[in-house]
Amino acid sequence: MVKKIIILLAAVFLLAACGQNETKQENSGESAEVHPLEVNLKVPDHANIHEKVSLTAEVSYGGEAVEDADEVKFEIWKEGEKEESKMIEAKHEKDGQYTIEHTFDENGVFFVQSHVTAKNQHNMPKKQIVIGELHKDGASTGENEETANHTHEHSQGSVDIQLELPENVKANTETLIQTKIQAENAPLLNANVRYEIWKDGSDKHDWVDAAGDEKGTYEAKYTFSSSGTYQIQVHVNNDEGLHEHVTKKVTVQK
């Protein structure tokens, strides 16, 4: 009888030990799950010189806001002047949002890159902002050009930009805008291409990002709100210091 009791007690202890071990393994598996560090960098497309601009990095991990990041900094530089960039530390505002305010003292194309360290990970997204009205540079912008074909000698070699539009463009109808870009007779890939669109006599300028393919063709769709004469200026730049822009006039029909 005593032996049976001892055997039963031993079995109970053995089962309890196995259960604890399985629980530890399950908990260990849960704690080992790793999520990517997400950073949503918010930078306006355009701002005026001497205007105070808010730059924000929204940081999240596993769908939850990160309010205790190890480090969040914003690196800012003018196109072609990366070696003279400024690094500014950001403070947490609320809900995983880290913000700074910055004033740009000159016109041009600038880059803003956030450096975020949290949860043993690092994420550094980058965006572009245009300061001032680049199309007002005069002849260098080709503001009065009616042709979309443009070739320019640059440090990367000969850059050919061909801005193409449908023959008939109508108001309140989605229009496909295409730009074919080549550098040294080869497709220019991974460039940042944006369209600046405005109606003659209007101060309102719309900015549209274009998506590129493996053939060096960059496309975007835009709907003209009314008939009249518009200017479309394509801005092309990349991390190697290229910055070109070509303007084409288009008549939008009713």
TrEMBL record:
Q: Does the keyword Secreted apply?
A: no
Q: Which residues form the signal peptide?
A: 1-19
Record region (Disordered): 138-158
Residue ranges occupied by any YtkA-like domain in the UniProt entry: 32-115, 157-235
What UniProt keywords apply to this chain's record, in alphabetical order?
A: Signal
Matching entries from InterPro entries are given as: YtkA-like_dom
What is the protein name stated in its UniProt record? YtkA-like domain-containing protein
